[in-house]
């Protein structure tokens, strides 16, 4: 991946839209590690100790950035019973629609010259193999692709036991109302822009890809396990650091408190801070290249 993008300039990276999810955990008491100055006799003073609690709930959010702009921000709410019923109904409808589309595509394919030529080729190969076997050649299974369906459906699944965000919720609550409208606005500014999408299952599901293609949004090939390359990961680090500072002086003990703090701190992220992180990409790529793609480099 680094070899492919090693010659990308800042100008080219400016044409990429970056987004990702972030989960903030351990709500209640102090967040992460807190450091204080204390005198030898103050070690056990209450104002020198954090409140220890069992790990609390977590809050998941989603954000979007690009060079010279800050995009929408979304904080996930737990799925309600009404939403679960709606999801079951809509997912059943979506699966039926995808099956019908796949059936039509397979019918068109089986009436094409490509299918006819493939069938004749594979039948000829099978005949030659059978003749060879009659003369003592070892048996060998010949694939008959023409007999199978070219287009298959990966059905959406819903279960009350699934944790996190699935493809249906991702498309319904983020992609349709927030991400794709922003992509269309950026497309008007830069017709060559591409969307950075990591390998999280809601992003790579067939349903998500199908809906994205309908929107005409191009996707950047992205390497797996690569937080150092994604500028928004460092924006999340900045956001987390600022929330830690607030938690040192404020009681952020409920999910409602954390959602409010998340939104407030996102609003404080400046375009200059975003641009600074995106500008680092050519240097990060060259550092990774210098260590032959290893992890011994820092963003």
Blueprint of the fold:
Layout: H1 2-5, H2 10-13, E1 16-24, E2 59-66, E3 69-75, H3 81-110, H4 113-134, H5 167-189, E4 194-196, H6 201-204, H7 206-215, E5 219-220, H8 231-249, H9 255-268, H10 271-279, H11 281-290
Helix pairs in contact: 5-7, 8-10
Summarize the structure.
The protein is an alpha/beta fold and 299 residues long. It has 11 helices and 5 strands. Helix 8 packs across helix 10.
Q: How would you describe this structure to a colleague?
A:
- The protein is of the alpha/beta class and 299 residues long.
- Helix content is 50%, strand content 10%.
- It has helices spanning 2-5, 10-13, 81-110, 113-134, 167-189, 201-204, 206-215, 231-249, 255-268, 271-279, 281-290, and strands spanning 16-24, 59-66, 69-75, 194-196, 219-220.
- Strands 3-2-1-4-5 form a five-stranded mixed sheet, with helices on both faces.
- A hairpin with a 2-residue loop joins strand 2 and strand 3 (69-75).
- Helix 5 (167-189) packs parallel to helix 7 (206-215) and helix 8 crosses helix 10.
- The longest helix is centred in the N-terminal third of the chain and has 30 residues, at 81-110.
- The chain is elongated and about 95 Å long.
- The mean pLDDT is 86.
Keywords, please?
five-stranded mixed β-sheet; alpha/beta
Order of helices and strands: HHEEEHHHEHHEHHHH
Report, as a whole number of angstroms, the end-to-end distance.
16 Å
Main sheet makeup: 5 strands, mixed
Which consecutive residue ranges, at least 5 long each, have pLDDT under 50? Answer: none
Strand content: 5-15%
* Beta strand count: 5
Give me the side-by-side strand order of the main sheet: 3-2-1-4-5
Helical/strand content category: alpha/beta
Overall form: elongated
Mean pLDDT, rounded to whole units? 86
């Amino acid at each position: 991946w680094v070899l492919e993008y090693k010659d990308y300039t800042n100008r080219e990276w400016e044409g990429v839209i970056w987004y990702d999810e972030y989960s903030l955990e351990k709500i209640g008491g102090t967040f992460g590690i807190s450091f204080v100055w204390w005198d030898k006799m103050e070690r056990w003073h209450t104002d020198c100790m954090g409140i220890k609690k069992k790990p609390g709930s977590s809050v998941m959010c989603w954000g979007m950035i690009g060079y010279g702009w800050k995009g929408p921000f979304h904080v996930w709410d737990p799925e309600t019973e009404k939403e679960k019923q709606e999801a079951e109904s809509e997912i059943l409808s979506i699966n039926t629609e995808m099956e019908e589309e796949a059936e039509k595509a397979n019918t068109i394919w089986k009436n094409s010259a490509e299918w006819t030529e493939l069938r004749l080729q594979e039948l000829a190969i099978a005949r030659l193999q059978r003749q060879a076997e009659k003369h003592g050649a070892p048996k060998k299974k010949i694939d008959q692709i023409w007999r199978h369906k070219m287009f298959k459906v990966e059905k959406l699944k819903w279960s009350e036991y699934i944790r996190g965000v699935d493809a249906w919720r991702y498309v319904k609550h983020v992609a349709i109302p927030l991400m794709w409208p922003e992509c269309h606005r950026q497309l008007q500014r830069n017709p060559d822009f591409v969307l950075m999408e990591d390998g999280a299952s809601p992003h790579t599901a067939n349903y998500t890809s199908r809906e994205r293609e309908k929107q005409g949004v191009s996707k950047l090939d992205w390497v797996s396990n690569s937080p150092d390359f994604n500028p928004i990961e460092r924006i999340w680090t900045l956001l987390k650091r600022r929330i830690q500072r607030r938690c040192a002086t404020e009681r952020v003990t409920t999910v409602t408190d954390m959602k409010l703090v998340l939104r407030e701190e996102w609003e404080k992220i400046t375009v200059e801070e975003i641009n600074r992180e995106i500008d680092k990409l050519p240097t990060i790529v060259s550092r990774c290249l210098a260590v032959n793609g290893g992890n011994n480099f820092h963003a």
